[in-house]
Structures are given as structure tokens and as C-alpha cells.
Amino acid sequence: MNLEERGETPISGRQAGESTEPTEAKLAVCPRSSPWRLWWAQILAILRLEVRKSLVGKRAIIVYLLAATPIILFAGHSFAVAYGFNRCRGTEDFAIFAGEFQIYYLRLGIFFGCVATFMNLFRGEVLEKTLHHYLLAPVRREVLVAGKFLSGLLASVVLFGAGTLGSFLIVASHVAQLRNQEFLADPLPGHLAAYMGVTVLACLGYGAVFLMLGMLVRNPIIPAVAVLIWESITIFLPPLLKQISVIYYLESLCPVRVPFRGANTLFAISGEPVSAWLAVPGLILLAAVAIFLSALRIRRLEVNYGTE
Fold first, then answer.
1. Can you give the chain as a three-state secondary structure string?
2. What pLDDT, in 10s, does the model give residues 161-217?
3. Phi, psi values for residue 257, rounded to 5°
4. Domain definitions of the chain by residue range
5. What does the H/E/C string look like for 83-147?
6. pLDDT of amino acid 235
7. Window from 4-13, 53-62, 104-113, 276-285 with minimum mean pLDDT
8. Which residues, 6+ apart, have CB-to-CB distance to 92 below 8 Å?
9. In degrees rounded to 5, what are phi and psi of residue 279?
């Protein structure tokens, strides 16, 4: 079934010969209200619907596992030390956390979590043959993109933010129990705020990129692998090309710069890190451009379930 661009004219599911879902009823707002007020109400309605899909379901299991892995690892380490299975003085625990955050969380956990969350915002609807319910509803398609993106961003920030917060607090509690004096000297609240901020920006940047790629291609594996390779070869790129990489800005914002050695130097970023005054606006601009391109793409989107 081909769905052509229908402008702003509301078309009900009965007119199209399709069964309606609660989507249209929840998106229905008084058309005489202010356009911005109308669009904001529709975004909130879409947000409520889509957050449940992102947090509940089979597709969310992998995201939960990716977010919870650091908590499980650091909790196991604390348990082993507490019961005498391992010795630890706590002098390098925060450096280990910084390495885990930069190597696993930014490059793998949040990366693939955003792939699973944002690429399925529209692609999942196509596979389930439910996207036409949104396209036939009386809502601008750009508003649909905004609502779906915010739902994916909220879900990913909640899950990975909880993972960052939980693993950091476990490390801090573990070091405090060892009565390490460095624990009292470290600016822990500032470091925690920085890690949480980087987590939010990572979800924002990668989420916008994968939302755009999910709108442009049918197979999400190929573009995800391409982005992963690009992010992994950052150390070999000249300074100008480094600025196109998301990980370059994210690691520049991390409060602790990990001294990678040996094979781990592949995860290092050569050169001086960019300042926060440039990194944060750069990531926000990248996300805005990706969302804008997604909005342009959906205006010309036609769905043919027979070819999927």
C-alpha cells in the first residue's frame, strides 16, 4: 500500500480502509489553537506513546543489558573485595572507571544502544506495518519526527544515565569503604556531573545520527558498521577530520583523560582536546542538522509494505 504525501488534510483510518489505533484520538487537538501550542501538544502525545515502546518490549532488552553491564562489573568487583576474593587499595578505581566509560560506554554501550533505539523509531514501525497510522493522523510529519526523537532521547538518557550514575556511585562507595584518602581529595561531584553530561550528549549526538540513517536506508547494519569504523579510526585522522567524529568531542569533555598504553592507544585521541565551549555547541549543531535532514526526508516518505 503506497501512502503519498497528503499535506495537512486529516484522513481517518476508515476513509483509508484501515483500522484505527488510539494514536489518532490522542493526537487530536483543537485545530483553532495556536500552531505552536498544537504542535507541542502533539509532540507530548507522541512522546507518551513512543517512550513505552522504547522502554518495554523485546527490542529494549539489549539496551537494558548494554546500560547495566558497568554496574554489574563494578558491583562484582566490590563484592569480591568485600569478601576477600580480591585485594584492592582503591588507588586506581576512578581511573579504571574513566577507561571503562570511554572505551565501553561511549564507543560500544551507548553507540549500539542508540542504534537499537533510534533506528527502530521508524524502521520498526515499517516492519510491524503500523507506520501508516501515524502518517494518516492529523499531525505534521515534522512534528512526528520531533516526537519520536524526543522519546528515543528520553529513553536512552534514562537508561544510560542510570548506568553511569549507578556504576560511579558503586566505585565511590567502594573507595570510601577502603578509606582511601584520595577519595576525599577528588572533586567527585564535578566529575559525576561531567560524566552525566557526556552521557546525555552522547545519546543526543548518536541518536540524531542513527535516526537520520534509519530514515535513509532499509538495512541498519551497514550504516551502523560504517559509523563504528569511522569513530574507531579517529586516532589516524588529521585534525580537520577529527572534528566530524562524535567521539572526539565526547572524550574531550570527559573529566579524566585516560593514559592509554600498548594496544589501548587505539582508543586514544591524539592532539589537544577541544574546549567545552566548542564541543557542546558542536554536538548540538550536529544533532540539529541530522534531525533537520530527517524532517526533510519524512516529507517525501512513501511506505510500501509489500517491498519490506
1. CCCCCCCCCCCCCCCCCCCCCHHHHHHCCCCCCCHHHHHHHHHHHHHHHHHHHHHCCCHHHHHHHHHHHHHHHHHHHHHHHHCCCCCCCCCCHHHHHHHHHHHHHHHHHHHHHHHHHHCHHHHHHHHCCCHHHHHCCCCCHHHHHHHHHHHHHHHHHHHHHHHHHHHHHHHHHHHHHCCCHHHHHCCHHHHHHHHHHHHHHHHHHHHHHHHHHHHHCCCCHHHHHHHHHHHHCHHHCCHHHHCCCHHHHHHHHCCCCCCCCHHHHHHCCCCCCCCHHHHHHHHHHHHHHHHHHHHHHHHCCCCCHHHC
2. 999 999 999 888 877 776 655 555 557 788 899 999 999 999 999 999 999 998 887
3. -95, 115
4. 33-303
5. CCCCCCCCCCHHHHHHHHHHHHHHHHHHHHHHHHHHCHHHHHHHHCCCHHHHHCCCCCHHHHHHH
6. 74
7. 4-13
8. none
9. -65, -45
Nearest Cα to Cα of residue 45 among 62, 21, 67: 21
Torsions phi, psi of 302, nearest 5? -125, 135
Q: What are phi and psi of 237, to 5 degrees?
A: -90, 150
The pLDDT of residue 24 is above 60: no
Q: At what angle do helices 141-177 and 120-127 cross, to 10 degrees?
A: 120
How crowded is the C-beta side of 185, counted as CA atoms within 13 Å? 4
pTM: 0.81
